[in-house]
Write a structure and sequence with these properties.
By secondary structure, the protein is of the alpha+beta class. The chain has four domains: about 130 residues, no CATH class; about 270 residues, no CATH class; about 80 residues, no CATH class; about 50 residues. The protein contains 21 helices and 20 strands. Helix 7 packs across helix 11. The N and C termini lie far apart (about 70 Å). The relative contact order is 0.07.
Length: about 600
């Protein structure tokens, strides 16, 4: 229980008490108890306002925030996150006996150390007095900006449409391709992750680079890593042996509105224990040690979700401001039960328990970056602007064992986020999902040669992404419709009707016949073939066995003959086919 003003003062030495008493008017007594009585009488008896007037702006902010906290606590970390500076508890030094000494500032009369609570607090009896005239602090919030800083060489990814497409693409990929996963971790191996990365709409955030030396840091996949986990956590995919397969719920999701699927995946991930996102911060070792090293992930995710709900829709927020906001607003969480169990390079010298090694920037902030970049962005809740992670942040350079690190985590390059309309819907901030509408003054000239020229304005990032899906760049401001890219885009689920609407909106003239024909033929031919499901090829011992099974009433509807002694069986019919051929007296091995 917090102690009263007098009890808090009793824990100070006589010189400390006299330093505080110097800020009060009147004659100063000599004995300790008399000094305590004098200070308490002055502050609780009506002179607190006069002392308050002596404080500077930062000191007043510290008192206001503590007074209007239910427990009167001064949280130094939260205060610094909000104001970027510390309030002065020590006054400027004065010369005495040829040495430089210092004394307590007037702030020490309001915020004192509570030995019972082991924290700095405004004592409850003084807190009641201060409530009468100390105004509450201004509400803290995130305002954001309409545009990104021009002085940063940023890569921007608009994730809203990508996420909707990729959810379907990855489910189709699992249907049609053998994606092997670890039976222990349920994670795909390097080859499978590379294949999944090639299926992504615009590729992963960073290009895949072959690792030539084991000591070289690897950024590796981010979106491609997240999707298999998200689909499993959402119940749309499951591990069967060492293979990832689509569940019945996943089959239904293929025809469901993408926004609903993404919202389900987000909600399921919030409660999932498949992965601790901080485990992806490879530089920090000891996370898998015996006993409870890491905290539960659900409370961490919940705090970040609450902070995302405070972001303005459609405005860019720097991740540094987002992190400071979380800290300042008390949206706090712990990553580990014991930072001494975690270390960089060496458990003896690189433990995160050492002062300055396991602070908010190393634990909470790196977790925030991983969660936002790898999961919130992958599901389309936020757009992201980023740079390469190498030397993007240098806040870890003073830590022991980091000399050889190019970056502390693969997410260090994340710079800005922007809450999308899809994100607002998924978070419950909007009752329905309405895709972003791009306002543009772009004017185009669409030519019979299938070229598209910009005649006025500059394409917005969304417009550039649309053009990249369907065209090849010929020169600055000039693109040419490309059949192969168009077919690829349609295969991935993009609607060529969006391209037609974009061209018609940008050019006052009717589309040339060649362009109209290109769009119509691409739409028709892009859907000429349809994958109806994955299948396995079953080799029979001889042609007679294949003929007997293919022609029998029990199995004829489950397979198709191909070649002399081969049968094709759909994956979803395989188990039933196996049961039926047993009834015919045949066994099937792998």
């Amino acid at each position: 229980m917090p102690v009263t003003l007098k009890i808090a003062l009793e824990n100070l030495t006589v010189p400390q008490l006299k330093a505080l008493a110097s800020h009060l008017p009147g004659e100063k007594p000599l004995r300790k108890q008399e000094v305590i009585d004098m200070i308490a009488s002055a502050l609780l008896g009506g002179k607190a306002r006069a002392v308050w007037d002596q404080l500077d702006e930062l000191q007043r902010a510290a008192v206001a925030e503590a007074v209007h906290e239910a427990n009167g606590r001064h949280d130094a970390r939260r205060f610094f996150a909000r104001h970027g500076a510390k309030p002065a508890f020590v006054a400027a030094g004065i010369k005495s006996s040829d040495r430089f000494s210092s004394k307590a500032s007037a702030l020490g009369l309001f915020i004192l150390y509570d030995p019972h609570e082991r924290s700095q607090r405004v004592p409850p009896d003084l807190q009641a007095v201060l409530h009468a005239f100390v105004p509450p602090p201004e509400p803290i919030g995130l305002s954001g900006a309409e545009s990104l800083p021009e002085n940063e060489a940023l890569t921007v990814r608009l994730t809203e449409r990508e996420a909707a497409q990729e959810a379907l693409i990855l489910l189709r990929t699992l249907e049609q391709t053998r994606i092997q996963v670890s039976e222990k971790t349920a994670l795909p191996g390097a080859a499978s992750l590379r294949l999944l990365g090639e299926k992504l709409v615009s590729g992963d955030y960073y290009p895949w680079v072959e690792k030539k030396h084991k000591w070289v840091q690897e950024i590796g996949p981010i979106r491609a890593f997240a999707w298999p986990l998200l689909l499993q956590a959402g119940g749309l995919a499951t591990r069967t042996g060492n293979r990832l397969t689509v569940t019945p719920a996943g089959v239904k999701a293929l025809s469901a509105p993408p926004a609903e699927t993404l919202r389900t995946l987000w909600r399921k991930w919030q409660k999932s224990t498949l992965l601790d996102e901080y485990s992806r911060v490879d530089a920090v070792k000891g996370q898998g040690g015996k006993g409870r090293v890491m905290t539960a992930v659900a409370p961490r995710r919940a705090e970040i979700e609450d902070a995302l709900m405070e972001c303005p829709v459609g405005r860019w927020v720097s991740v540094d401001a987002f992190s400071r906001f979380m800290c300042a607003a008390g949206m706090d969480f712990e990553v580990t039960h014991d930072p001494w169990r975690l270390y960089v390079c060496s458990s003896d010298y690189g433990a995160l328990g050492y002062d300055g090694h396991g602070g908010w920037n190393i634990l909470q902030e790196r977790y925030i970056f991983a969660f936002l970049f790898e999961y919130a962005a992958t599901l389309g809740l936020i757009d992201v602007a980023f740079v390469a992670p190498e030397d993007a942040r240098r806040d870890f350079r003073d830590m022991w064992g980091t000399d050889e690190l190019a970056f502390f985590s693969r997410y260090d390059g994340l710079r800005h986020i922007r809450l999308t309309p899809l994100g607002a819907y998924i978070l419950g901030l909007a009752d329905e999902y309405r895709p972003s509408v791009v306002s543009s003054d772009l004017a185009l000239s669409v030519l019979p040669s299938l070229q598209i020229k910009v005649t006025h304005g500059t394409p917005a990032p969304e417009e550039t992404l649309l053009l990249d899906n369907w065209t090849e760049s010929v020169a600055p401001g000039i693109w040419r419709l490309d059949r192969e890219k168009a077919l690829t885009a349609i295969e991935k689920g993009f609607d060529i009707g969006e391209l037609r609407a974009f061209l018609e909106r940008g050019d006052d003239m009717m589309l040339p016949e060649t362009v109209d024909s290109f769009i119509r033929n691409s739409e028709r031919n892009g859907k000429a073939l349809k994958l109806s499901g994955a299948a396995v090829l079953v080799e029979c011992r001889d042609a007679e066995t294949a003929s007997a099974i293919a022609g029998h009433k029990e199995t004829s509807a489950l397979c198709l003959p191909t070649g002399e002694k081969m049968l094709v069986v759909r994956n979803d019919h395989l188990e039933k086919f196996r049961q039926r051929v047993r009834l015919l007296g045949f066994g099937m091995t792998t």
